[in-house]
Fold these 2 entries.
Entry 1:
Amino acid sequence: MVKLSPSVLTSDFLTLKQILPQFEASGVEMLHLDVMDGIFVPNISFGVPVIKSIKAHTNIPLDVHLMIDRPHRYIKQFAEVSDWLGFHYEAGSNVAETLKEIRALGCKSCLTIKPKTEPEEIFEFLPLCDMVLVMSVEPGFGGQKFMPSALPKIKAIKAEAERLGLNLEIEIDGGINAETAPLAVEAGATVLVAGNYIFSADDIPKTVEEIHRL
Ligand code: DX5
Ligand code: ZN
């Protein structure tokens, strides 16, 4: 069954507490938290204190997506509030060392690539990853249009992970909705991030169920 990681980026943070029980009852596997620094991406979102508050109100594993410059500087702080912790290949940190540090701190490691990055560039790091996140929009904002160029990248990463005998989650993030989710699953995505699609749904449990049925 494909896993779902709702992205809270465009939600109302003060009413999020009332929505979390719906996610828990629907069996949502992760909660996606987008950290933006205004440098690596042209937008600023939130950091450790907000994630800490969310963590205090839910048992759903937290899937933290760092969109920050030189993320190795902040791994320790974020590892304390994350279950899955991911950063960008393009963000200027030593990739292998940062992935190892995330695992050593007890989190699942995730390496993320932007739409212009070719999957082959990260093949050497796959044994250090518990998950790879393929962006299907330019990182920085919710509500953008899905880029189908993400699909062959997922296929390539899946094939390489199988060749290496790795148990790797492949996550896709950006523009996931009723039309694009089946394409992502067909390509081999095992975790779908969905922001606007989930938070604008009239019936959240029904929408989650539809995704789980894919
Ligand atoms: C974009 C973020 C996404 C965003 C997805 O930089 O990484 O997680 O919240 O939002 P939707 O699903 O609305 O494209
Ligand atoms: Zn994200």
Note: The mean pLDDT is 97.
Entry 2:
Amino acid sequence: MTSVKAEPETTAEQAARETFDSLDPATDEVVGTYPVHTADDVATAVERARAASSWWAGLGFAGREERLQRWKGVLTRRSAQLAELVHAETGKPHGDAMLEIVLAIDHTAWAAKHARKVLGPKRRAAGLLMANQAAIVEYQPLGVVGVIGPWNYPVFTPMGSIVYALAAGNAVVFKPSELTPGVGKWLADTFAEVVPEHPVFQVVTGFGETGAALCRAGVDKLAFTGSPATGKKIMAACAETLTQVLIEAGGKDALLVDSDADVPAAADAAVWGGMSNAGQTCVGVERVYVHERVYDDFVKKVVDVASSVRAGSDAEAKFGPITMPAQLEIIRRHIADALSRGGRALVGGEDAVGDRYVQPTVLVDVPEDSAAVREETFGPTLTIAKVRDMDEAIAKANDSRYGLASAVFSKSRGVELARRLRSGMTSVNGVISFAGIPSLPFGGIGDSGFGRIHGPEGLREFARAKAIAKQRFKPPLLLTTFSRTAKTDATVAKLITVLHGKRR
Ligand code: NAD
């Protein structure tokens, strides 16, 4: 097959193309200018990806692993450059940018290394009735996967779909958030340096319309990460062509603190889990339920820790600005509503919401039916509620339309409580730990979406099961023929009675 190269655009075409700017949210400086790709552009990208996908699939697990591991090396060696771009487009501190890059690199290595073991051909037991057959299952690539990503973790989040889809043998067309197009382009450009032969991983840039066009461009699966409201639009668009979807949406994650918990560790985790990245984390802590026996001690420690951190763009600031300006109003509304309904701000409050930055805010006595407890705030805020026991904590934590992740601090009952939490992932005596373990699946329940990225489940999400039954020898009982005799039917009836007819 010949390689498919992009036709260079003429100057007239370039001039006619609509563009948009990516801004630094701390300064409004233009970080870069990118094309608004039209439905035609997206269709062309998917068409090119289609041709590239057969070449990529044909490389086999070993060929893909070798290239993905080389890409991983490039990501690692140039991580400082990528972190600078993430910092510029999102405003998050360099350290936080590095953290998400490090995790994405580890996931890339894992997906590349484990794809063959998880997806490669495997023998299954054929069963007594079909003992003459060899049963084989293997997971084949879907073809072209469309990925639509958010801005809050512009490397880690989309890479959870991109690298698992690539490792499974698919080509990828990625539409990054309009707030972080530069990061998306950087990822595709570095991949193309390692895999120059075909456009196996392409990026299209633009707003919601470009994303909607990707849903309708004939991809074999659409992996979306973003808000539940957009997730519903994506599903509706994909339904037109029966295109499969994976939805990684928002959350309202709870952290539970049991009476025997390590309270200082729980307080530290609650503040970091709730406020790092300015609270703009899908699996960030938003609500805390604390056993009455340790409540006062926990609240005091949370206040101490939260009072010691602040937002800003200087080196001492622990987190940066609110990346999406429209979110400021949502955070302000949640805090105001909580306070007007009897809640108290022990740290921060309404004044904590500025023009770009939101300072840490810790709310107590907030009614359970208020916006600050029920809706995704996506800011550096925590609500803390006292509970009689862990049954009440579980009931309150589970009373949410979301179900992304959760955390439990308990010395004796951590795993037991984790099992009872209605969420896709739970950390015990830590927060967000599951995200750094590549072998664990990641995904939600309810309005947090469905489908899984990461781990073996994440690889299978981007593949289709292929079943092969191969006759090894002629069967003693010929079942699949019109020449089947009454005697055969009687023998089968006897056999099935012996096998399955026993009363228990
Ligand atoms: P968003 O829903 O506004 O946008 C996400 C992406 O969808 C963007 O690329 C956007 O351009 C695109 N889009 C918008 N309208 C579209 C349409 N009609 N058709 C197709 N694409 C369209 O979300 P956001 O503000 O970028 O991200 C924040 C949200 O993402 C939060 O709710 C957060 O919890 C969630 N999130 C979830 C996870 C997870 O893994 N579950 C991870 C990170 C973020």
Note: The mean pLDDT is 96.
